[in-house]
Amino acid sequence: MAERLILHEDAVSGNCYKIRLTAALLTIPLERRGYDILAGETRTPAFLATVNPNGRIPVLQIGDRFLPESNAACHWLASESALIPSDRFDRADMLRWMFWEQYNHEPNIATLRFWRSIVGEARLTEVQRALVPGKEAAGADALALMERHLAGQDWFVGEGASLADICLFAYTHVAGEGGFAMAAYPAIGAWLDRVRHLPGFVALDAR
Ligand SMILES: N[C@@H](CCC(=O)N[C@@H](CS)C(=O)NCC(=O)O)C(=O)O
Fold first, then answer.
1. Domain residue extents for the chain
2. Closest Cα to residue 132, out of 150, 119, 145?
3. Level-2 CATH architecture, domain 88-196
4. Range 5-78: architecture per CATH
5. Atom number in ligand 1 closest to CA 35
6. Mind listing the pLDDT tens digit for each residue in 17-55?
7. Which of 35, 61, 127, 184 could serve as a FRET partner for 41 with CA atoms 20 to 30 Å apart?
8. 88 CB burial (10 A radius; 0-12, 13-18, 19+)
């Protein structure tokens, strides 16, 4: 019998959405267990002891084992599917984009979206406010790099959609909520539409 899969998540989170989107594209059923990150529900002693000692969602529960980190969870779900290229170089290149997403894209674009459209500008701390200009510049650099890459090809790696596209879609499609002017990136816009037309596509939950 297949193991029970439970996604520990907050529905506003793009990192959690990546996992739901991967599962939907692969028609893998997931149960969802919600937490309110603004209320600190991922920082309780029970959560830290049983779900993720790092105090964050998403976590994919596979039977009685817990797998934190969104891109690792997507990789587990997509194992042996067409979302992971069969070519050895392309497989590593897909991971390149997924690591890049976590280092150059998500910390800037997702953080500004979270601060501006979920926490709210008025509630930012002085420290957060001081970090905004650097994140705006680094986020725009990340989008410009994606734009140049997608000007020459339909998908991030090879000839079809891979986890690189899914993981980058999650926060790029809501980058406008972080203050990024997305009209400046037409190749990204066309790629976002290609992802939206993948069979089985599901949208981020409405807020
Ligand atoms: N690198 C992690 C990032 C996880 C992360 O930052 N999660 C945020 C929501 S997207 C969170 O749980 N924040 C709550 C907190 O830090 O208390 C991943 O990709 O899963």
1. 5-78, 88-196
2. 119
3. Up-down Bundle (1.20)
4. 3-Layer(aba) Sandwich (3.40)
5. 12
6. 999 999 999 999 999 999 999 999 999 999 999 999 999
7. 127
8. exposed
